[in-house]
Design brief:
about 50 residues; mainly alpha; 3 helices; about 0% strand
Length: about 50
């Protein structure tokens, strides 16, 4: 896997966990900021709507 694929897979995992357990839980588990999780979730929702 190249680095872009790995990053995309990690982002997808963060968003999936945020949807299941909550954004703050996902930020703690993956070691990213809460604002990053919110931004990723928002971007994913926008992409799904199109």
């Amino acid at each position: 896997m190249n680095i872009l694929t790995q990053e995309a897979h990690r982002r997808q995992s963060v968003v999936n966990l945020a949807n299941r357990k909550g954004k703050s839980c996902a930020s703690r588990m993956y070691g990213v900021s809460l604002s990053s999780v919110k931004r990723l979730s928002k971007a994913t929702r926008a992409a799904m709507a199109v």
